[in-house]
Amino acid sequence: MTDASDAPAPSDGPLSTRALYRRWVGPLLSRDVGADAEQLSQLTLMALAQASLRRDWPVVADVVSGLSAELQRRDLRLEQTLFGCRFANPVGLAAGFDKNGVAAGLWHAFGFGFAELGTVTWHPQPGNPRPRLFRLAAERAALNRMGFNNGGAERVRRNLQRQRLPPPSQRPAVLGLNFGKSRVTDLDRAPEDYAASLELLSPLADYAVINVSSPNTPGLRDLQQVGQLRRLVERLRRLPACPPLLVKIAPDLEDDAIDTIARLAFEEGLAGVIAVNTSLDRLGLESRRLPQTGRTLAEEAGGLSGAPLRPRALQVLRRLRAAAGPALPLIGVGGIDSAEAAWERITAGASLVQLYTGWIYEGPALVPAILEGLQRQLDRHGFSTLREAVGSGVPWA
What we know:
By secondary structure, this protein is an alpha/beta fold. The chain has 12 helices and 13 strands.
């Protein structure tokens, strides 16, 4: 066990990840305009993809080892076993960043206890027209209408196989796969579309997520209706060797719909629920104007993520926990950009949390900062394990 006071602090030297990110990337993220948000993500993933393929080469291995030493935090108190997966820590990378799984071999080096790859669709698809990803720098937020752009399930399978990953349950970080409906597939054929992707990729997944909550595929959120979702879950669970199944829900659901999904999760034996996806609500930013288009957020399509989503994401999680009781694992995502925000979600009932927009703005040092913050909270409240804190309602101290 590692006490928080004994954990090595991230280096603040001039060549540390924290310092380099602040110096070179921070200025690019401080303005709405300038470097294109999607291009920055693509350039980053291209570099990470090459590093993941060559992570055993001596020079690359040294870099990965140095990254791990700086960003990982080992503490037995943070470990959990949920739906058959052992999580070294509760902080994960949310779906949407590594859509094609090209950097699957590296996410543990950034300190993550797990990473969710995708969203993957059966058919390759280019997504929505560009521009489709926008920074809202002052609000530490983003608007995206990507539309499940990915190379399709077969390409993701090839990408994962090329990286020579250890088999599920033997990896340094748990790897989940997030699945969505192909845009060309009608809703009545959605179960078969999801099933084709999952059947192909299930041998490579520690767990699988049914994404029925993205706002950027027409009609997709209709699959959150109880009848549609039950039909989808029952089809997927008939697959041979189906991995643990979770469902990811929208923040824009009414309370009764949240309660219904909690009941369905128990009835159908789902492994957990992820709350939440991006929001169609503009969360008080309706009049905020995008300089790239000249239109307000009220006039723009797409889902809002980042800091403005934090209060609503917390509300949904609390509602889920109240409806589901203590046994169903929940994963909290949306507006988590600090240790305090992560602790807030955990004590509200989340066993795990995921980062995306906050991780982009804060940089890789956010993961160890959250883990160190969680360690300090365990110390201050006298918890011997993180599991004791889940759903406890204990405030940040």
